[in-house]
Amino acid sequence: MPNGAGSSSPAGWPDDPPRIGVLAEQGGFASHLEHVASVGAIGSEVRGPESLDSLDGLIIPGGESTTISKAIRRDGLDQAVVSFARSGRPVLGTCAGMILLGRDHLGLIDISVRRNAFGRQLASFEQALRIPALAPEGAFPGIFIRAPWVEEAGVGVEVLTTLEEHPVAVRQGPVIALSFHPELSGDDRIHGSFARQCAEVRDSGDGRTGQGEEPESEGHAGQ
């Protein structure tokens, strides 16, 4: 469980907390759900398209990107996730989630990604990162496990932080992609920031009737 270091809770929505789903096909979804709960949001597992209907935001966790990609195609979630993001509702992808959000898969953020860029499992490490847009108070403990990095980003992509001169946190419209695993740290600031974004979009009315900013890439869901 998050230990409150850099805690973002209480989040200020006691009567109407945002509802955040975590894709639960494979990977570290349980830890994300713990962080979602720690910031006062309502978390739920997403295993089919119908699970997305009532959500204000979606997290795509780390795991095996090939396995997750096959599972979401099998369960009809690929196009559903694309529609969800393009409705303007926020999406956060971590590690394998970054890969799935990029040009070669769902095409929801205009990036090309290098898999296992920092090495295989034995090369896993923790690195303090400065990410003012997501965790403004001090460094965030970035945990990198078989982590990707961004090889190329389109002009509409905002780089939030880099490591070894490579982007490891990026944003385009309502979509955020991270190379690392915030859910494995005891710091819930990124989940708190994401939950606030979800609540703000919901309360503004932009997350269900409007169209999200579409990347300039030619990515296709389920590629």
Brief synopsis:
This protein is of the alpha/beta class and 223 residues long.
How does the overall form come out from the CA principal axes? Answer: globular
Number of strands: 11
Query: What is the multimeric organization of the chains shown?
Result: single chain
Work out the helicity level. 10-25%
Average residue pLDDT: 88
Beginning-to-end CA distance, first to last residue: 35 Å
- How can the largest sheet be summarized? 7 strands, mixed
Structural class: alpha/beta
Low-confidence stretches: 209-223
* Major sheet: arrangement of strands: 2-1-3-4-11-10-9
Q: What's the Cα radius of gyration?
A: 16 Å
Q: Number of helix segments?
A: 5
SSE ordering: EHEEHHEHEEEEEEEH
Residues in β-strands, percent: 25-35%
Plain-language structure description:
The chain is an alpha/beta fold. It contains five helices and eleven strands. It has helices spanning 29-38, 65-74, 77-86, 96-101, 189-204; strands spanning 19-23, 42-46, 57-60, 91-94, 111-114, 125-131, 135-144, 149-153, 158-163, 166-172, 175-178. A seven-stranded mixed sheet has the order 2-1-3-4-11-10-9. Strands 5-8 form a two-stranded antiparallel ribbon. Strands 6-7 form a two-stranded antiparallel sheet. β9 (158-163) and β10 form a beta hairpin. It is globular and about 40 Å long.
